[in-house]
């Protein structure tokens, strides 16, 4: 049996060698070329299938609010309030083959359903399996909060001293698979944040992410 296996291995190894009559050598050469072409075609089909699946169903990017703090607060003699919030938006791209280049987006902060602050999100690019941290400064719209003053006062002086906020971000961009296939995508995030007034910079959050392709 060992001799037979050795003989078979030897025959396979010498299949493409030119020996014997010219007709037999040409036949072996044609067989070798056919096998090589078939193998290359199969590899190309598999690669094309992988690319097609990756392009059709790229793993979506996601975004979360990793930091939120009250940056400034001032009250004019007339009673108007000027305030800004500093937020850090982290965009993560879990795809191993697709990059995410995003255009300028939008960030909005809501207090009990009322728009309280907004700002533009700067453009950028996240490499495959990469992440990006974006600093965003939001201007508080004091006039929008006028009708919520009693509730805001109660949250600030309450036992916990936490202000419940919802941070919504919309980041449009383009997903590029292996530098070839491109698809438009929009990453939409809504984070419920409890901002601590008594401990500046302290907050807790939970986020929901939706990616539209």
TrEMBL record:
One of its GO terms (biological process) is defense response to other organism. GO terms for cellular component: membrane. The chain crosses the membrane at residues 31-56. InterPro entries: LEA_2, NDR1-like. It holds the Pfam family LEA_2. Keywords: Membrane, Transmembrane, Transmembrane helix. Its main location: membrane. Residues 1-23 are annotated as: Disordered. It is found in: Membrane. Residues 1-13 have a biased composition (Low complexity). It is a single-pass membrane protein. Residues 89-182 form the Late embryogenesis abundant protein LEA-2 subgroup domain. This is Late embryogenesis abundant protein LEA-2 subgroup domain-containing protein. It comes from Oryza nivara.
